[in-house]
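Hi F.,

I've been meaning to write this up properly since the lab meeting, where we talked about keeping a consistent format for the predictions we share between groups. The idea is simple: the sequence comes first, exactly as it goes in, then the C-alpha cells exactly as they come out, then a line or two of notes. No screenshots and no reformatting. I'm using this chain as the first example so we have something concrete to point to.
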Amino acid sequence: MLSRLSIQNYALIDSLDIRFDSGLNILTGETGAGKSIIMGGLSLILGQRVESRYFFNQHKKCIIEGYFDVSDYQLEPFFIEQDLDYEQETILRREISVDGKSRAFVNDTPVTLAVLKALAEKLIDIHSQHATLQLNTEAFQLLTLDSVAQSQHLRGRYTAAYQTYKTTQARLNQLKEEAQQTRAEADYHQFLYDELAKANLDADEQGLLEAEQQQLEHAEEIKRNLFGVVYALQEQELNALALLKEAVQQLQQAERYMAALAPQAERLQSSFIELKDLADEISRTEQGIVLDEARLAEVNERLSLLYTLQQKHRVDSVAELIALREELRGRLDALSSDEAEIGRLEKDVARLKAETLALAAELSALRQAAIPTVQDEVSRILHEVGMPQSRLHIVLSQVDADQIRSSGQDKAEFLFTANKGQNPQPIGKVASGGELSRLMLAIKSLIAKTSSLPTIIFDEIDTGISGEVALKVGNIMERLADRMQVIAITHLPQIASKGKTHFRVYKKESTDKTATSIVQLEQPERIQEIAQMLSGANPGEAALQHAAELLAN
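Output, unedited:
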C-alpha cells in the first residue's frame, strides 16, 4: 500500500507530505484546488514521462517520493530479477532537474522508466474518469476474465511460449528470405565455381608458363645463339679451348724452370677444364632445344584461359582467382547449411506452435468458465448502484490458429445494455458517462476480489451520478477498502462520508504566489467539509446535520 507521498516543487505544490491510511482514503476540494496536480505528481513515480517543466520554483529541481509497504505482496522475485535491494518499505523516487532531465530510483538505486513502471503496475491501479475508455479495449476485457479465472500463471506460461514461438518463426522467415535470395543466385554461383574448379588453378603456374612460352617462341634464336657459343669455344679451327690448351702447355713448360709459376699453371688448367665442361653443357642444351609447336600451342591455350578468367572476374592474379573460388564454394556450402537449418527450424516452429496452441486452449477454457461469474457479479453490483435492468453479455470467440496473439487465441467482446428490452450492444455505443463509471466500478470491484494489487485510486469516477446511487457507490468503495487500500478523489458528499481518512486539498494565496496544500480533517472538520459539499460555502444547520448523519452511517 501507499503509506506516504511526498511532493516537492511540482506545479502549484511547494511541498506536500501526505500519509495515507490502509483503508478508504478520501480527497476532496474545490475544482482547481490541485487534486489533479497531486495525481499528476503521483503518476510521475509510476513511470509516466515528463511532458513539461512546470515547477513551483523554476530554479529548483522537482522531487517526488512514494513510500510503499510491500511486505505482503511477494515481490522479492521482481527485485532479484531487476538486481534491486528489497525493502519491506520500498521508496520510489523521481527527480526532474531544471533542464528537464529526469532520473528514477527504487530504494536509492537508479532504474529506467520501464523498470519503475513495471514495479508501479504491481502496486497501484489508477482509475480516472477517462479510464472508462478501457472498457472498450479487448486487452482490458481479457484481463478481466483472466483475473476472475485466476489464470495469470497460465497466461504467463502462454506468453513465454508465444514469444518463443514468434521469435523462432521470425528467424525461420528471415532465413527463408535469405535462402530464397541466395537460391536465385545459386545457379550462377555454381556455374562460376565449376568453371574455376575445372581450371585446376595453381598460384605459381602462370609465372612458369609465361617463362616457358618465352622459351618456346624463341627456340630457333636460342638454339642458334647456343650453337654460336659452342662453335666459338670448341668447333671452329681457331677456337677458345684450343688456344687455352696451348696456353696451358706453354705455362706448364715454363713451370719446369720456375717453380713459382705452379699456382698460375694450376689455375689456368682449372679454367681450361671449367670452360671445356661449360662448352659440353651448352652443346647438350643446344642439342636438346627443339621447336615444339604443339607444346607452344598448349601453353598459349592455358595462359589464354588464365588471362580470360582474370579479366572476367576483374582480378590480377591466379591467387585471387583461387580466393574467389573458395568464396563461391563457401556460399554454396552455406546455402546447403541454410537448407538444413530451415528444415530444423520448420520442425521447431511446428512444435512450438502446437505447444502454444495447447496453452491457448487451456486459457480459453478458463476464460470461458469465468464468463458466467463475471456477468452475474457485474449485474449484481450494477443492480446495487441503481441499474437493475442492466445486463453484461460476454462473447468469447477464437481467431485462426495462424492469427494467435500475445493474449491468446481469444477475441473478447463485452456487450452491454442498461435498459430492459434492449439487446446488448458494444459498450461504447450504448452506455452514458454515468453508466460507464458504474460499470467500470463494478468490474474493478470484481477484479479486486481476485487481485493482490495493494492500492486502487479512483480519480473522480463519480461523473454522472448523484443521490442514492452515489451513496451505493460509496458503499462499494468502502467494501473494497476491506481488502485493499482505496484512495478516492470525489466531489460527492455521499462518497466522501465513507472514508476512513479524509484529506482536503485547497489553495493558499500569498503576496506573489498561489500554492496547493492539503490537510487531514478531523471529525468536526469533516462535518464542515461534507456540509459544504452538500450546500455550498456557508452551510446551514440542516446541511451540517445531514453531513453528521452521513458520517454516522
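Notes:
The mean pLDDT is 87.
The two ends are 26 Å apart (CA to CA).

If this format works for you, I'll send the rest the same way.

G.
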